[in-house]
Amino acid sequence: MNAIAAATQHVVSRLYASAAVTAHVPAERKRIVQGALPNPEEAEYPLIFVLTYGDPVDTRYNNARRALTEVTVSVRVVMPADDLGPLVPIAVAVDEALDGTRGETATGTVVSCVRISETEMVDRVAGQTVRYLGGRYELLVS
């Protein structure tokens, strides 16, 4: 099992499988990105940024093998905007696609995926106001 890979695969596959998400962020345009944002001058918006947050934590019982690994993944909608209005429907679609889900991946079983907090950030990039809206999700992987 690779918990980080399983968590990331779960999140990305759920996003691509959601008609509500891909209505805003077309799958064929590869705008669900992992690990690093594209160059702002070349990026197509809106996009969804997926990043593992911090270090995963293992759970063991009585010196036994690892039972679960807790992985926190940040999932944010990113786009130039003067306010959060244009990001809200996409962030809602993302949350509906992820919160409360579980499933099998090629590298592990996601037992649970729940949002633990919302996140919002504003940045200035190449003279534009770029906003980020989404959440941190805790995934339990076995």
Element-by-element helix/strand order: HHEEEHEEE
How far the N terminus sits from the C terminus, by CA atoms, comes to 7 Å
For the biggest sheet, the summary is: 6 strands, mixed
Per the principal axes of the C-alpha atoms, what is the gross shape? elongated
Q: Helical percent range?
A: 10-25%
Strand order of the largest sheet: 1-2-3-6-5-4
Strand content: over 45%
Low-confidence stretches: none
Q: Report the total helices.
A: 3
The helix/strand class is alpha+beta
- Residue-averaged pLDDT, rounded? 92
Describe it.
The protein is an alpha+beta fold and 142 residues long. The protein has 3 helices and 6 strands; from the N terminus they run H-H-E-E-E-H-E-E-E. A 6-stranded mixed β-sheet has the order 1-2-3-6-5-4.
